[in-house]
Amino acid sequence: MDNALPLLLYVGETQRTPKQRWMSHDCHKYIENYIGLHRSYSLNVAVSIAFWYGAPGNRKQRLQLESELIYKWKSPFNKECWQYWGQPFGK
């Protein structure tokens, strides 16, 4: 999340620890670029990360919830929403 706006940047499910999930995903590169771009233009940025430990234990249910949240919030770092915003910091 960017709490300066506020803007939900990414939604994802995992069975890994927060650190394992973060380091194994391209999203951390997007966040680094996002913060750097904001700072280069002296824009407010307040990125935070949160994990909901009360998420359903059943993976199928977590994936369903993940999908619902992605489409509800249209989070720009989720590939399902690139049709709206384009790929962030694409190659």
Descriptive terms for the model:
91 residues, mainly alpha
Structural commentary:
- By secondary structure, the chain is an all-alpha fold.
- The protein has one domain.
- It has four helices and no strands.
- It has helices spanning 18-23, 27-40, 59-73, 82-85.
- It is globular, with a radius of gyration of 14 Å.
Short account of what is shown:
By secondary structure, the chain is mostly helical. It contains 4 helices and no strands.
Give the SSE map.
Blueprint: H1 18-23, H2 27-40, H3 59-73, H4 82-85
Instruction: Output the structural class.
Output: mainly alpha
Shape: globular
Quick one: biggest sheet? Answer: none
Count the helices. How many?
Answer: 4
The share of residues in extended strands comes to under 5%
